[in-house]
């Protein structure tokens, strides 16, 4: 029965999904930011195409976290404004094996999709949308597949009640001490984005106090790069919550500017100055009328709206309210937690809230594929 379940077409899981927004690889980073922040962009990612709108031309995908890591890199942290005028292709991974884009046909089986995701390390796949114009595509994600399995969990009764520890699903977690500079966690944030996970923020004795999540960062705007450069990991959690929640007090921004001055990061101060951002955004909307341009700039100066994948703000949850389980928690309980809170991972803690590890979507998918292969 479980084997026949995987013969369904992936198109069944793509019903109602929004089409991807695309940008040519020659577009600037600033234009990518505007596209990501546009109210018409339904996903946290936009696809990058080498030309035209054919699936074969899709060369990668980018999100706001890619922009933040790029602006905070050692190469650009001193002059982030100038970096915004570089082509968006600089945000794509130099290693084709990391973060690559894979396409599957809409009539591919769910089994094929799982194999491509697990064996190829792809957390989402490009799927043509049926009954849409040619060149219209959507993302099929691990979350889509796990929701599908949860709806048929009765077919997997042999493993559903087993603990995540006994199934070998608890892996080492990426973590940073809350007192450490947020900038020191930049490589971890990048890795978390690639692994579809997050960075745990812990105390000196490894107690979990919160997280820095790429999903939540994707609900912010490019000025968060300044906060990453200026604040500690613990302070960044609070800052992100302010941004993604739509409330960012002037005093908070002033505190960030003060830290940046102390560090000599004047380029980051320029990034968050309203005049600079307005100028960059005005140039990217030069085809609009003056009134439309003014309104667009005004909207973009506010904290960015929540994307569908930005679970923290969707669920009204703050960064310190990380979703946790215990090593003895069952497979189905962890799945329900993750899917209910729109997270692709669940932190594993002990009775003292000490960080034990993390359970991620890719590992959950492996368990189901292995179980089907035994049938």
From TrEMBL:
It comes from Iris pallida (Sweet iris). Residues 315-374 form the CBS domain. The keyword Nucleus does not apply. PANTHER family: AMP-ACTIVATED PROTEIN KINASE, GAMMA REGULATORY SUBUNIT, CBS DOMAIN-CONTAINING PROTEIN. Residues 279-315 are annotated as: Disordered. This is CBS domain-containing protein. SUPFAM superfamilies: CBS-domain pair (SSF54631). One of its GO terms (cellular component) is cytoplasm. InterPro entries: AMPK_gamma/SDS23_families, CBS_dom, CBS_dom_sf. Residues 279-288 have a biased composition (Low complexity). Keywords: CBS domain, Repeat. It holds the Pfam family CBS. The keyword Transferase does not apply.
């Amino acid at each position: 029965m479980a084997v026949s379940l995987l013969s369904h077409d992936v198109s069944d899981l793509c019903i109602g999904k929004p089409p991807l927004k695309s940008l040519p690889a020659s577009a600037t980073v600033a234009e990518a930011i505007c596209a990501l922040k546009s109210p018409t962009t339904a996903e946290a990612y936009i696809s990058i195409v080498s030309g035209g709108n054919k699936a074969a031309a899709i060369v990668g995908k980018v999100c706001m976290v890619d922009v933040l890591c790029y602006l905070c890199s050692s190469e650009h942290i001193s002059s982030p404004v100038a970096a915004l005028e570089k082509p968006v292709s600089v945000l794509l991974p130099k290693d084709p094996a990391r973060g690559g884009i894979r396409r599957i046909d809409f009539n591919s089986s769910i089994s094929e999709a799982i194999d491509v995701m697990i064996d190829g390390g792809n957390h989402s796949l490009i799927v043509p949308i049926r009954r849409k114009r040619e060149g219209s595509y959507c993302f099929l994600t691990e979350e889509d597949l796990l929701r599908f399995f949860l709806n048929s969990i009765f077919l997997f009764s042999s493993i559903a009640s087993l603990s995540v520890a006994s199934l070998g699903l608890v892996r080492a977690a990426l973590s940073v001490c809350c007192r450490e500079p947020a900038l020191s966690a930049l490589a971890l944030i990048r890795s978390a984005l690639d692994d579809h996970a997050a960075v745990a923020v812990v105390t000196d004795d490894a107690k979990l106090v919160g997280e820095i999540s790429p999903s939540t960062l994707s609900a912010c705007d490019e000025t968060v790069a300044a906060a990453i450069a200026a604040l500690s990991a613990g302070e960044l959690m609070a800052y992100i919550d302010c941004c993604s929640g739509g409330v960012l007090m002037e005093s908070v921004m002033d505190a960030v500017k003060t830290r940046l001055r102390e560090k000599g990061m004047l380029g980051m101060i320029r990034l968050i100055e309203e005049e600079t951002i307005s100028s960059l955004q005005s140039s990217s909307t030069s085809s609009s009328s003056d009134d439309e341009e003014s309104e667009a700039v005004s909207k973009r100066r506010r904290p960015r709206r929540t994307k569908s994948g930005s679970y923290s703000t969707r669920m009204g949850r703050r960064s310190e309210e990380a979703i946790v389980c215990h090593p003895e928690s069952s497979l189905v309980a962890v799945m329900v937690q993750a899917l209910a809170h729109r997270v692709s991972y669940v932190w594993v803690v002990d009775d003292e809230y000490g960080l034990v590890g993390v359970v991620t979507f890719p590992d959950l998918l492996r368990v189901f594929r292995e179980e089907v292969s035994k049938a």
